[in-house]
Structures are given as C-alpha cells and as structure tokens.
Specification:
about 325 residues, mainly alpha, Rubrerythrin, domain 2, 3-stranded antiparallel beta sheet, 8 helices, binds fe (ii) ion
C-alpha cells in the first residue's frame, strides 16, 4: 500500500496516500498523482500544482534553476538519527531526522531561528499534546522517507556549505528577482482594491536586498573561511575581536530578523491566501512566497542548527590570528 505524502506549499496540509481524504470521499491508497487534475486542497483550495512531495528536504522546487542540484552523488550515509525525546531541541530533531520538518511546518512550529527550545516547550507554547506530536514524528520518520536526506551532521563542512550554496543560495538569487517583479506587477494592478499588496511590496523590496547582502557575506567571507580552515585544521579567529562565534552571531541575528519579516508577510497576506478576485499573477505571487518561506526555513535550519554549531565546535572560539572581519552592515 502506498504511504507517500504530499504537502500543500500554501497551507501545509498533507495529503497522506495511506489515509486518502475522507472529507472528499477519497479512499485510502489513492495516489496523489492519480487525483483528478481539478482536485483542490481541502484546507485552502489550492490546485495540485501547489503541492510538492513531503520530503521537505530534497527540494525538488528549484531544480530547473539550480546549477548542480540533483546531480551530486551521496557523500555520507543517510541519517538514521537517534530516538526522539521531549527534551531534544526542535532544531536537533530536524537535524537528526530531516523528514520531521514536514510535521513542524504543518504544526507551525519554528525549527530554524526558534529551533533551540525543547520539543516539550514548543508544544506547550502551541497548546499541543507533546506525546501525540512525538508519536506523529515517529510515524513520519519510520514510514515516510521517500527521498532520503544525507546526514549533514557527518559530511565535511565544505560539502555542507556546497550544498547550502547550490541548493538554497543560487536558486534564491534568481527567485528573489522573480518574486520582486511579480510583486511590483500585482501592487500596480491590484493595489487600489487590495492595499495589503502595496504594503507587501514595501516589505519585500528591502528584504530582498538584505538577503542578497547576507548571502554575499556568507559566501565571500564566512563560508570560505570555514572551509579553508577545515582543510588546514588550524584555529580560526576574526580580526574584529574574537573567534568564529562573532560573525556567526551576526548571521544568526540576521536570520532572526528574516524570520520576523517573513512573519510580517504571512500576516499581511492572510497566510498567503489569495482573495476571490485574485488573477493568476496574484495567485502565483502568493504561491511563490509560500514556497520561498518553506525554503527559507530549511535553509536557515541547516545553517543555524547544523553548520554553525559544527563550525564553532570544530574550531573552538576566540583563538588564532586571522585578520578577516565581518560587520553586520
Ligand atoms: Fe545562507
Ligand atoms: Fe544565512
């Protein structure tokens, strides 16, 4: 029996083939691919094209624009991970079990910037039963890993950096420009009846520039320094008065700020729900922003919860004589 899951990138509803969809009289075992083309998401009414395989980490979304993605041979074993406990941080759960990101997306639990709190605390904040969440996570991890993710806690830091740049940064550079153009078009055509899309443009345009600058700093200073020092196995320090934790701290602050901006955009767009009179560009804009948010969660998670802690642990803090320096702006 098929048990693949497919997630709606607009509202995070998951179509589970093992369950079907009783609300639409769809029996268990009906594959997502065989659903009628006119089928709509039971939660937000999005079409089938708004869905993606619920691997959450294999990222098929940008394959057409992502140089090198999808062609790499596995460089580390697939992560089998340790058993989930309530005391584990949310970020640690996703680092150990990448497939769990689907569940956290569905439950609106932040696993990137806010991933440091325990699973128990995260559930308490959301008013969820932690035991049920642990069970749900265990089900997904056991039964639903259609595209296994490499164990990013075991590969070299250079390989992890290459993965982040090719799978997230490079496609994002293209996608930011495309979304901005779409946002300008929608604001121009619909701003009069929907002032929120003008507000959205005012938030997104400077956000795009901040993200581009952020990625530039990572790619030109932080990432090469980490990769170089890993290969040379020397201590690492930055001329501005400390070790690698300083530039990493700056990057993490910028990640927090990006999280707040995405939250603002989500509120402005009623969780990316297009209004009744939305044209295709309008729908496409909201769809693109919902996917952009999902990608950003996964991207920031791999930096905040895997790359940065590993870099700090491997090289230690505050030693060496490196003259590199990175400032926040
Ligand atoms: Fe990044
Ligand atoms: Fe980053």
């Amino acid at each position: 029996m098929s048990n693949a899951k497919t997630i709606c990138t607009v509202c995070n509803y998951i179509y589970d083939e093992a369950q079907g969809e009783p609300r639409q009289n769809i029996a268990p075992s009906v594959e997502f691919a065989s659903l009628n083309e006119a089928w709509r998401c039971p939660e937000c009414n999005s079409g089938k094209d708004m869905f993606q395989p619920c691997t959450c980490v294999s990222l098929p979304i940008y394959e057409s624009t992502c140089v090198g993605h999808g062609n790499k041979k596995p460089v580390a074993p697939v992560n089998s991970g340790q058993a989930i406990s309530k005391a584990m941080s949310v970020g640690e759960v996703v680092a150990q079990h990448p497939a769990s990101a689907c569940i956290f997306e569905q439950l609106s639990i932040d696993y990137c910037c806010g991933g440091k709190i325990s699973l128990e605390e995260a559930c308490r904040k959301k008013g969820l039963d932690v035991d049920q969440v642990v069970k749900k996570l265990a089900d997904v991890i056991t039964n639903n890993v259609p595209t296994p993710e490499l164990d990013w806690t075991q590969v070299s830091l250079k390989d992890l950096i290459d993965h982040i740049v090719s799978v997230y940064h490079n496609p994002l550079k293209y996608e930011l420009g495309r979304i901005l153009a779409l946002s300008e078009k929608v604001a121009l055509r619909h701003g009069e009846n929907h002032p929120e899309v003008v507000e959205l443009l005012k938030v997104f345009a400077p956000f795009k520039e901040e993200l581009e600058l952020h990625m530039q700093k990572e790619e030109m200073i932080l990432f090469p320094t980490i990769a170089q020092r890993e290969s040379q196995n020397k201590p690492i320090s930055f001329g501005c008065g400390g070790g690698i934790e300083h530039p990493i701290g700056v990057m993490m602050m910028e990640h927090d700020s990006a999280g707040e901006t995405m939250e603002k955009m989500r509120k402005l767009t009623n969780s990316y729900t297009p209004p009744e009179d939305a044209c295709n560009s309008y729908k496409q804009l909201f769809h693109s922003l919902a996917r952009f948010e999902l990608e950003m969660h996964q991207h920031v998670h791999k930096e905040n919860n895997i790359l940065f802690p590993r870099a700090i642990e491997l090289f230690g803090a505050g030693s060496g004589n490196d003259q590199s320096c990175m400032t926040a702006k």
